[in-house]
Hints:
Radius of gyration: 16 Å
CATH topology: Rossmann fold
Number of helices: 7
Number of domains: 1
Number of strands: 8
CATH superfamily: Flavodoxin domain
Shape: globular
Largest sheet: 6 strands, mixed
Structural class: alpha/beta
Amino acid sequence: MEAIVYVSNTGNTQRYARLLADQINLPVYSLEESKRNLKKGTEIIYLGWIMANGIKGYKDANEYFSIGIVCAVGMSENGSHLEEIRKANFIPESIPLFTLQGGLYLEKLKGANKMIIKMVLKKVKKELLEKSNRTDQENNMLDLMIHGGSRVCVENLYEVLSCYKENFIQKKG
């Protein structure tokens, strides 16, 4: 791996990219910056935010770079919806995929993204509020929907770091 490349909307994915870079000592670039600073085919770790199971920027990054690990950042708990996201983005089984809980900042969203998120939130929030036996994960999601904020932390990256060390550090040495 030579770099970490990301697409962020409200800053959560960027924060994860920088936390990851601090842990594994790789340069970090937005997708836009990466095309100016890295050669086509460079092996990267890619991070993008999730919208309707799509990972923003993944298709573009995949056409330009060799992606070794994908991290998709959304509102759901770590490890959620992996198969749906893999299928929706045509990510081969050979590429490790991780989902990371980011956060919600409605005030930072703009245009159609804000409108779509508000509609989805209204529906899901109503369903969760009406549910009497919510799980801890559902309570966490409801709290995020009501209060907003971030769940970004280095602990959420432990599986990614372990995968990186097992599959990319050991291959070098």
